[in-house]
Model the fold of this input.
Amino acid sequence: MYKEIAQNRERTIFIMAMFFVVVVGVGYLFAYIYEDISIVIGAVVFALIMNWVGYFKSDAIALSASRARPVRPDTNLSERQAMHLVENLSITAGLLTPKLYIMEDPSINAFATGRDPKHASVALTTGALEKLEKVELEGVIAHELSHVKNYDILLATVAITMVGIVTLLADWFTRVRLYNNRSSNNKEAGWLAVLAIVLIVLAPLFAKLLQLAVSRGREYLADASGAMLTRYPEGLAAALEKIAADTTQGMPTANRATAHLFIASPFEGKIKTGARSWFSTHPPIEERVKRLREMNL
Done:
């Protein structure tokens, strides 16, 4: 576990450094095209600001994108019970109690976010509160608290900002290329066309590889850690089976940048097998259930 925590911190630094290099590299190309060194300076400033936002504000971005609201323990019994589970499991795990948020969605899902255990938040869907038994909900919450304790949340939430910005850059350069093609036929349009094509091709691949790098292995680890926390693997296993069998349509508030945060894919068709599973942000649910039921605690 300690080795995994150290690796998560190292991966986070690597992702932020890679993002910095990509943005400054694009800025350098623009400076070359327009023969203006100030573009490089602007790119450096932009990359530093976005890295700061990714580290300190990505949790707020994830919660806002998912339309999560703070829990209302004074007015709702199910939310009050969920809050008590979070508090009790946090004490057991030796963690500060994270903030609890609720997503108004009938599907069963959850995620954790934040840069460290002191600034962590856990979000649950209303479907999870309504459809899961207490031991099942406890298993889901324990899984998310394990992400907090293992520092998975730092890596995962920073990845949201990086993936989102790279995707936006690809879209922006496409628009710039189209504008320049209409307005001129000089070498600038040619360079911008090449750059836009490269970003259009690489941005989705970069985003997918980044999500896969931070998702699949950590889900197995969080499953095992969560089961050890509750001492009852069957609770999480049963919850995952309910998630797989849930006929509710995919979450409308979810997007490709935040999908890797959730305990299970927030899109339709949660179970993927064969070659399709290679490109999923989550390992197959049936394999996760199998591993949980093979645990001896």
In short: The chain is about 70% helix and 5% strand. The longest strand covers residues 120-125.
